[in-house]
Amino acid sequence: MSDESILLFLHGIGDGDHAENWKIALDKTLDSLGYSGLDAARVIAPKYAHALKGWDEKQDVPAMTTKQPSREAAKRNRRDFERRMGAAEFRLGRHDRGNGYPGGDAAIGLALMHSKFVQARNYVQDAQVRAQVLNLVLSKLPESGRLVIVGHSLGSVIAADLVGRLPSRLKVIGMVTIGSPLANGCFDVDKLGEKLKDPPTNLAWWVNFWNAPDPVAAHRGVSSVFPWMVDFRINTKVLPRQAHLAVEYLADEAVGEAIGFALFGSKSKEVVRQENGLDVPLDAAEMFALLALRYSYLIKERLEGDVQDRYTGALRQVQATVVDGITTRNQGEGRPVPSAIARLEFDLSDPYSDVPEPLPSSHMAKDDAVIILTTLAAENIIRPFEIAIPKSKKDKKDIREEAMKDLTAEMGLGGNYGADVFTAAKLAHVVLSGGRGVNWVKWSALGAGAAALIVATGGLALAAGAGLAGAAVITSALASFGPGGMIGGLLTAGTLATAGGGGLAYGLASSGTSAETLEAVVERQLATEILRQRQRLHPNPAIWRILAQTEIEVRREHERLDEFSDETAPTLNELKRKIDAIERALKYLTENGLEPSGAPNSHDEMV
Fold this sequence. Notes:
Strands 2-1-3-4-5-6 form a six-stranded parallel β-sheet, with helices on both faces. It is built from 25 helices and six strands. Helix 1 links the parallel strand 1 and strand 2 (42-44). By secondary structure, the chain is α/β, with parallel strands linked by helices. The longest helix is centred in the middle third of the chain and has 29 residues, at 305-333. It has helices at residues 19-32, 71-92, 104-112, 118-125, 127-139, 154-162, 192-195, 240-243, 246-250, 253-264, 284-302, 305-333, 339-342, 366-378, 399-410, 415-433, 448-456, 460-464, 471-481, 486-498, 502-509, 515-534, 541-562, 570-591, 603-606, and strands at residues 5-10, 42-44, 144-152, 169-178, 206-211, 230-234.
């Protein structure tokens, strides 16, 4: 099999009559980006305008050739696909699915009935025409090779319909759709959305571009139908009639970058990833530290002026302290320092020494990322320094949230995961506060209060319920770093967000734990459940159980003290505040289908 890539261009209505125009536009864009031209690839651009007008002889729709994988294989395929999509998003920009135009679907449905669009109507409504077109395209393709598919307009519908019917040895190393109407229900040919509910096993990645003034795209992408792929918005600032043309899309640099990378691979400006080289696996403390440092650098890159200067100085000291702390701890335990950590070392005493940046983060499964990313979003990752992060001056966006999107894109989770992390955290804060205030990042709430809580629970009992790491790892790390520094603080917050068992319930109910600390812990636990639901992951039933157990313990403490204490006693007010927070969290879980089956429906049943 030749290493030469094959470009399959599937035209829309009218594109086939101007075969050279799209090539000229794409060649010019590739050249401007530093890629080889189309002469370096094999180009296949079948013409099928005549086949869309009507069928000559009866044909069968080509059979699906991609086999349905086993459950575990499908899970691995989805995870690998997400990693590649995350890399594509990191390379090309931010995912933007758009919101669509009011009445856009109806307008496209009416347009489809016009005689001008009879070819599109024939494809989606006449099985014989569809079979004829698919068979014609397949007849032009080789049996094996590395295929890049570019589909414009109706060609994008054909591309999605075709991808699962290709010869088994023909691998799609990238698919780019432009000006696609696939989000419109009229183009759900043969229940295409259902058939492609998971990415096909022969497809490396798929990105779609929609032009803001394009009436066919109707101001939205196609990820509403295929949620596993990524949409990108471009804006050519031309009239709507021109905005849909293939040449307008192919003249855009982002579109050219996607096609050029698919055909010819990365260029020198591409970020080089370190996939291997870790001599020992990262433990919980090292993983938290590495991700926190990487997230900090992504935030720093978006800052400006004095804030960026101060943040850079603080980050420099934090990085030196973190690396030194991990090195000292590991030496004491006879454990090697992972190379991903060791490479970040520098001489803090030399003000001119270069500070190495953490490499882009490696892939992590969505389930595994819930606790870690929720914790990073809510904690001060440059402890002990405190610097308020402003909104971006350019577009008024939340810099921390935008940086989290960058981080999750790097990790192969996609930018939407990062957005959902912040949405979940903000919603959890609104639920517990009853809508009061907007400052959901309570950096102080899990400081000294969390340290006292760990003491109250005996430390080991708390860690034993945590999903982040074993009790020995957490207690060792906290003993080495303490709960107040960056690593200890992140570990403490992450442990409290996922821990279960009576020890935590008793500790939260204790008078030694403030209502503010309980609210912060419950808020983070609730945020993890909201994030799981938004990402369609299985809920964690332990969250419900610990909240229910904590409510029981708090109510018992309240009943014990209420009998003789003053009605306005501060301790009673604290307990009432705790009860209110837990009730709000349990109510939200119940109303949103996150209550475990068999869970008690009332306080009376629980006690």
